[in-house]
Amino acid sequence: MNRLMALIKREFWENKGALRTTPLVIGGLHLAAVVMALVTFNHFDNEFQSLKELLRFVAQQDVDLRSKIAYGVSLEMSVMFTMVLAFVVFFYLLGSLYDDRKDRSILFWKSLPASDTLTIASKLFTAMFLAPLIFWVVYVLTHILFMAILSVVVIALGENPWTLFISLGNPFEAWSLTLASYFAQSIWALPLYGWLMLVSAFAPRIPLLFAILPPVILGVLELWMDFLKTFTINDNLFGLFGHWFANSPVILSIDINTDDTGVESIGAGLGVPLTGEYDHAVTVSNMLDRLFSTDMLIGLAIAAVFFAGTLWLRRRATES
Amino acid sequence: MNYVIEAQGLTKRYKSTIAVDNIDLKIPAGRIVGLIGPNGAGKTSALKAILGLANYEGKLSVLGKDPSKDRAALREDVCFIADVAVLPRWIRVWQLIDLTEDIHPKFSREKCLQYLSSTKVTLNHKVKQLSKGMVAQLHLAIVMSIDVKLLVLDEPTLGLDILFRKQFYTNLLNDYFDEERTILITTHQVEEIEHILSDLIFIQDGRIALDATMDDIHQAFSELMVSPDKAAAARELNPINERELFGRHIFLFKNANREQLKELGELRTPGVADLFVATMTGGQS
After folding, report:
1. ipTM exceeding 0.95?
2. Average pLDDT of A73-99?
3. What are the structural domains of chain B?
4. CA A27 to chain centre
5. Do B87 and A105 touch (CB under 8 A)?
6. Which one in A36, A73, B4, B205 has a CA-CA gap of 20 to 30 Å to B224?
């Protein structure tokens, strides 16, 4: 256990930029954007003369609507973190078993009494749990600071932030839902993670190329074969990837139906818009549906093969 | 007798070449063994097999364990420096010490800090900020602070200047080595380590060309320097090697009668380097 913790610590130290600095930058950008918007509010071409006027208007709105918006905003704030997290984890895993082979420090790591299995486990743990946890903590902090900044402004303008929005949103629900979706996604994405680690353990150079080319070539070949046979484009590998991606239990957009008030869905701008086919992970039961599906079972079986291959390759990484 | 390393028919094949060809090896505890051979002789392949870093054929036991199966367990009692500059470049010295302490049960932080205090390496340095020599010092400090039974050094001082190299081996001998421990070293700089070795193994084309203790070698081999007029007489006595230096002929003899040799010229103990050249080239050089 101590060894596993040490190895995870190592991953954090080695990837501090990706794991710690990146979410801090996203949080900082969010807050900077908020402050900028508040400072320059009067310069926008909008129907309100001043912030004060806007706040009065908001305060007059229906409580139910305000709750929905407050809740939506707290979820929405996680979207940027979620998307960047996906990139960070992707590239982290791609380099996880490649970088130390490239700079030969694998010879040092292998001189320590930590098994290859434990090493791989520490990297997978970092991708599945540590990275999402750090991103989530920064997201929550950003949200709290966002509300704090807003509260100060609201107080300065003579309104009561508590009744205006703080008491309405229940941020804890959005926070826990986001964290749950991160971990659900970590499990959902295991076949991808397994593939990335396999490539990372295998690639003689440029792991990105080795990760992307085989599925692309296979997909194109399949598409072509299909087309030659049927002159139509049916279900294929790309469709499968698309389906898998769209089915991810992550929060990418939040649809708040507010037809009666004229306020449109506030999520459509940033994320994938909701369609009837895929509903996203805005409820726990949605996530559980994904995780206890046949698709997931097949995915886990594929992931197991990839991880076995990864271990096999890692054991032989010092052969030549 | 219990051997630290025991190999029987150890063979390592790459696709088309045989790097290690059916070697037998027995290394007891408390020895400093030099594994010497030309480039591509199979030194590193043999070491990798011993360290469990590569597959092999034949029987191999290191501290009673099978390195191909018990790599992680073996690491607790076997430490190695495989080549210079394999420490991760991004890491800070204090992080390296932290990690080694957490992962290795036999690591002593106090010892490591003590070794480092005599160098210019500070805890806050990143490895990539250190010179090559300092990295080697750091690596050696870490390795010497681990209480293992077998230490394997594969070209540990390659590319370092002579001051660092001398210091490296002095530290190793004075601060680390004792009867319980075994050190296995490969290097090209034979002259620098010959005085610290207790055993010598020459390896050539994947085979062992010589395996003896230094005492045996000093007993068995003698070097004779004669003037040209005595050269023919010396040749009569079946030297294993002959070379010329400043007009004088130098012969290397194995198991020769020293009294007889003395009459022909000046008798000396041969250096490992000369012995190596003689063994590798077989005859004239």
Report:
1. no
2. 91
3. 3-205 (3.40.50.300), 217-281 (3.30.70)
4. 14
5. yes
6. B205
